[in-house]
Predict the structure of Methyltransferase domain-containing protein.
Amino acid sequence: MRGFVFEPKTKFLDPEKIVFQTGLSKGQKVADLGAGNGFYAFASSKIVGDSGEVFVVDILEDALSHVSSEARLKGLRNIKTIRADLEQSDACDSIVAGSMDLVIFANVFHQIKNPEELFRQAYRLLKSGGKVLVVEWNSQPSPFGPDFSLRVPEKQVSEWANKKAFRLVSSIETDRYHYGLIFTR
């Protein structure tokens, strides 16, 4: 039997199951902000298909290179990578305003100094009625993940979202170490 610690990340979080809960569908557009290695981008890409688009935004060139390589290997031609610092107000200016159906923030808030800026950018990117998916580490002790003091409670994320005119639609199922929230514009 394989060990708990060595299981791939998807054994804990199932990105396809999580993204599916947003109602994302074929032909839609997604921006995965702070995407890292692209777990949610790949899941989104499969759902939206060739007629959809997935924009992967991250500051780390290595992460973006990984996403590009994996996308090529998997034959996913609808993924576009953008190198940008999400702390900057113009980070997502290369994505057309009002064009996204879904913006994803997965495990990024514990790394960001000004999280309200992320919601401002999401508001600019989303169509009216568009959604934001937030997946973050919960406050339960875990053998891995960010320091407990850096984890952001659901209530705090909701407050940031509400300040930028987002409304909480639902809490979603993730895994025992994370929580998931869906907001709408």
Notes: The chain has one domain: 9-184. Helices lie at 15-20, 39-48, 61-74, 115-125, 154-163. The first strand starts at residue 29 and ends at 33. The CA atoms of residues 9 and 178 lie 12 Å apart.
